[in-house]
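Let's do one together. I've listed all components of the complex below, 966 residues spread over two lines.
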Amino acid sequence: MTADATTTESRDPDAKRLFDAWRTPTGWRYWSAVNNSEVGLWYVVASFTFFLFGGILALLMRIQLAVPENDFLTADQYHQVFTMHGSVMMFLFAVPILEAISILLLPEMLGARDLPFPRLSAYGFWCFLIGGVFVCGSIFFGVAPEGGWFMYPPMTTEYQTGVGVDIWLLGLSFIEVASIAAAVELIVGVLKCRPPGMRLNLIPLYAWYILVVAVMILFAFPPLIAGDLLMELERSLDWPFFDASRGGDPMLWQHLFWIFGHPEVYIVFLPSVALLAMIVPTFARTAMVGYGWIVLAAVGTGFLSFGLWVHHMFTTGLPAISIGIFSAASQAVAIPTGIQLFCFIATLLVGRVTKSVCLLFTLGGLATFIIGGLTGVMVAVAPFDYQAHDTYFIVGHLHYVLIGGTIFPIVAGVYYYYPAVTGKQLSERLGRSAFWLMLIGFNISFFPMHFSGLLGMPRRVYTYQAELHVGTLNLISTIGAFVLAAGFLVFLWDVLRPKSRQPLAPRNVWNAGTLEWLAEVPDKPWGVRSIPIVETRYPLWEQERFVDDVDEGRFYLPGADEGKRETLVTSVVDAEPIQCLRVPGPTFLTHLAAVFTGGVFILSTFHWYVAAAISGVLAVATILVWLWTGTAWIPEKHEKDVGRGVTLPIYVSGSRAVGWWAMFITMLGDMTAFISLVFGYFFYWTIQEDFPPQGSNGPGWIYPTAALLTITLVWLAVMAARTWNRQDRGPMFYGAIAFGVTLSLAGVWALLMGPSSHAMDPTSHVYPAIVWVLVLWTALHVVVGIVMQLYCAARRMAGKMTARYDADIVNVTLYWHFIALTSLITWLVVAAFPMVAR
Amino acid sequence: MSKSNLHDNRISPLWAIVSAPAIWAMHFLASYMTAAVFCAKFADSDGSAGEVQLAVMIYTVIALLLIVAIAVIGFRHHHHGRQFTSHDDSGRDAQRRMIGFSTFLLALLSAVATVFTALVLVFVGTCH
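Okay, and this is what the predicted structure of the assembly comes out as:
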């Protein structure tokens, strides 16, 4: 909620200018807002709406399973419902809600005016909304995916010919774009947009967790995107990546899916723990115990969680050694997970705890999560997992982990942060009712599932026979599910009930110590009146006159002299101010870009490839307009006085600039997807006696080597262009670009000629298919690199890029470093390896 | 802009924090890939995996030596300056101590996790 200009602003011209610069658009233009407070709020509301949708699907399943041999849903409907329930909860709620809360609150926690790329956040949100509605909508037409949230082939490649699997693959890939966009935004936000003085030892724990989680997203989501690409190619073009009769293997999908899927559990768990790390000190009235230990826990869990993926595959016949290695890692991850829980308990023990609904949900969440964690340790033991695999024991386990570790903390977070966002407090009385209904309902619903599983009830069956003797347990689970749902209804009513007559909550209603509680009531669109200097972890508790100094503009950027939206960029480690960053304001370009990007994925679902291609061209054009008009502005002056005698540059390029970091982080994710495809190539090599198959045509070495050489020359040309631009040698710069573009085209041609000149038919066997994928991946990246080079040339011609203001070409050079590496790896795999392997 | 601002991109503390778990990750991947490739391509019909056991033992010695070195560096940073000052002051020294402490703890965790992986090869010597 934001207020109109008040008397304070009218008295203080600095405040007035600041207010005007950050003013939220009104009327229909409200939806053009890109500020974190608006986009974050929409994101939260949309995520919760999908959560309710997923919850209703869960109730439908519980009705169906309430009694043996029920016919409330048909088998086909049930398959759609359980697939959508899992997919919606994981892809449309659990991950987006963490991004939503972070976009909404992280800038406030860091005392920043906004995250560094507000339009990227908005683009991510609109992609998420369009993709989510598309995926969810499919169930109303009876064409929803039916393969479970993990979409295992060959069921989803050979036995499900409907459009459902394509909707899942393409719709959710589209949403993953939003997740990676958010990851870029959050990593750069934490590293570069902290307030002056907030060194690494003073960062709010939430930010540490989010940094870890965003990096995890960067390495976990791309393997799934790679898997989606392979499966969609098999479904659309008959490239046999998972077809055993032509050399493929469904196990590759399981590897790629679970390299994503297990870290995913921690990706949704850690941000919720992060919320608890903000809530617990406030209600314990003391600083968090063991800050360094929690950093250990966050970073350690982030790493170890990548070593667990095969524990979802213990029953697939892998070698005993492999199973043992992953079982060991699954046990080891309990150590950092346990450490952070002990830190919370210790903080509550040493503090003076005040009662609150927030704390109830915190404690309920911790207790529930610990039960789920203990059953997790059980299923990490392979022999036990052989018995429990694919039974309702696992359903019970995973819901204890996810509801205890994610849902309860998020509800605690809603009660905690609601006053900061809306200015009104939720009801403690309704909150207590909601809590007890949820806690009791949850345990009645999910605890019996452990027993029904041990009695032999398999997962994902639409009904069961009375002779299995699990009817009573299922009936109890169904009753519990409705009690749990009643708890959510009470919570929902508390959130949505009209509050116009309710007085505004006091500022910093919980007497918390961290920066987000600087928010005024009602909140102002500028975030903070001035960007503070931070000297402690809990500045509102420990720094004298802190709030007054912020409010009276005694810190940095207390105004907006040029009427621009500005925030501070600081150094990664010491948080010293290094730039006054201007961020763009409201626009509808992000909507257009999201619609056209969505068109590529959605139209492809129905195999309307021409329309999808047109949509793709429009998406690229829109994004180029967005970049042209909204990034790397040349300022009217080089430097600006940001207050307290500090003068900072307005424009920086290279590794000091947020744009450079965004490119670097994006390309790390891109590289991870590429390495996942390379993993696929070597996976086929390990499982087949003869790979590359004797007698099969490879791409040879001549064309791939020519491609590598030309692309390496392009890389050198781009670096030369960067240098000549910096030396203001225009003709040399344009010459290098022309040379680079020409050779790029030659490189693409050489790449494609390798497999095509050797008649490699990608539908005949998995070997030509995986070679084609690697080559096409590289070629596509070179084509994007051509567009980037032409963009830089156009920017210089238009006077938007100069020798001094050269961020565009610097970032494009960074992109080409990655392309050079991609080309080298492609050459090593498709050209060099076959010579060695034979 | 002060002179110190020009040297803003000292990101070494972040690398220090992640270095020990990164070594665990490399040890883990190397062990898994060695086992997977050996069992798929080179194992005898009885499934004996003695070569994998030897390879993982070598990986483990290398990984533990590196992790111990990181732990020592982390511990020294933690004890930088006055020994018992806290981690939550605003100065650079406090930051150094806190990062050193977390680096040290993560090295301990990584060492335990690495030994966990190695122990599998002590007890399991077959692909079957």
